[in-house]
Amino acid sequence: MAVRGRGAGVRQLLLLMVSLMSIVHGSAALKVGFYNTICPKAEATVKAVIQGRFNSDKTITPALLRLFFHDCFVRGCDASLLIASTRTNSAEKDAGANLTVRGFDIIDAAKAAVDKLPGCKGKVSCADIIALATRDSVALAGGPAFAMPTGRRDGRVSKASEVNLPGPTLSVADATRAFTAKGMSQADMVTLLGAHTVGITHCSFFDDRLWNFKGTGRADPSMDVNLVNQLKKLCPKQGVGLGKAVNLDQGTPAQVDKSFFNQILAKKGILLLDQSLATDRATSGRANLLAGPRSPFTADFMAALVRLGNVGVLEGTKGEIRNICSRIN
């Protein structure tokens, strides 16, 4: 459900709504337009870099959404995921759950471009660049433009041992607990899983649902039979490496819209947790609302991204502004 054909008035209303939500739910020091005086062209420069990459690689949107989420869920949104390991420290980037995360190079490119602006070197954090880049990539993939508060500082600690991200086989209850532990609601969780409207996964993360669901030797009965047969051709065996890539949204996989929720209601969720959103009593109402004819998905997704961007941020004099995103100053 792209906002672009609904008129300038609706776009302005969404911008205002998300901005107001960010003020209500945001951190005290984060604000929209934080760089307006100290580096006025920072946001436009990040947007230009992301636009350039998006023109040649539409998959940068799910890549950045995943990078943003994985960073914010460990030590907060402080760009600790970007820090490279050293001889004495294994960093978050090298934890198993992060080995397939990508987009680091585009964050580095945006950081370099911003630091070349007059008077801007050392002024814009890598954490803010992640947040802005994610926002811009979402808008390019069909979502609306929206206001992202900035003012984050970069963390100085990154440990692979601290990475404990919610996985695709969690129950709805366990996933809810993971989100509420970060100060987010169950509604936020359901909405943010809508990021799978542009994501992919690999056979190894769901092939048990095709071949041996819960040890039954049969497919998961909650998955559409035709989809099971289609996926079995892509994933002909269970437990053989990552396997092939599969779109999480079988409807409009390159567009940020409500299609993901229509898919899970049609029993076409690929990951177990995704499908459970439509069948669990705690979340099925929300899933139906987001799939419906008056779906608030677009506005709610942007607001949830803003709230995600407030998790555990460093502000003021805490942390630092890294000169190189992969290395502590």
Compute the number of strand runs.
2
Helix content: 40-55%
Strand order of the largest sheet: 1-2
Biggest pleated sheet? 2 strands, antiparallel
Strand content: under 5%
CATH topology of the largest domain: Peroxidase, domain 1
| CATH architecture grouping of the largest domain | Orthogonal Bundle
Shape: globular
Folded structure, characterized:
The chain has two domains: 22-165, Peroxidase, domain 1, CATH 1.10.520; 172-303, Peroxidase, domain 2. It contains 13 helices and two strands. The protein has helices spanning 8-25, 42-56, 60-72, 104-115, 126-140, 172-180, 186-192, 207-211, 225-234, 259-265, 272-279, 284-291, 297-308, and strands at residues 200-202, 245-247. The protein has a two-stranded antiparallel sheet. Helix 2 (42-56) packs antiparallel against helix 4, helix 2 (42-56) packs across helix 5 and helix 10 crosses helix 12. The termini are far apart. The model is unreliable at 1-25 (pLDDT under 50).
